[in-house]
Amino acid sequence: DHLLFFTNSGRVYERRVYNVPEMSRTSQGRAIAQLLDLQKGEKITNTLAIKDFEKEEQYLVFATSKGTVKKTALSAYGNIRQNGIIAISLDEGDSLIGVQVTSGKDHIMLNTKSGLAVRFEESDVRAMGRPAAGVTGVRFKREGDEVVDMIIVHEGINEGHKVLTGCANGYGKRTPLEDYPVKGRGTRGVINICLLYTSPS
Q: Does residue 200 have a pLDDT over 70?
């Protein structure tokens, strides 16, 4: 398989799985900087294993901390230079927080630091070229809020499935997926988990 390494700055690097050294379960591992030519300040935010880049009707969906989403055909990432390429263009102060493979018919759920979630149809996001910046996925209700996670709800999944939400201080809960109504892209969403939230002064 091909391993795609996505960074907070919106770049993607590619290595084959056989280039990653195999080690025992208890070994420390190897620093990612020994495998990738990362730029200064870059951190890995997502890793995907891809077997076939030419599979029809497959996309990569990106989400950023400032609420932008972008959808691009998976085939656009089949030829990546050794020193990486731009996967998504980011505004100043924004960062890439999630990347997932989708079918074009799934739902996207963006979850924010203040405990809100917005769920919308993937078809609300038109496919764009690789260097594009994307479109608004969520509008923030609270000052200082940001997207911290993205969930892809695959086509046909709903009844009986749960969303597991975990918080930085160790709290967590499971919620039925049907409790998250499908809204339009760019809305403010619904309460996902009640938090003691103080906006920055």
A: no
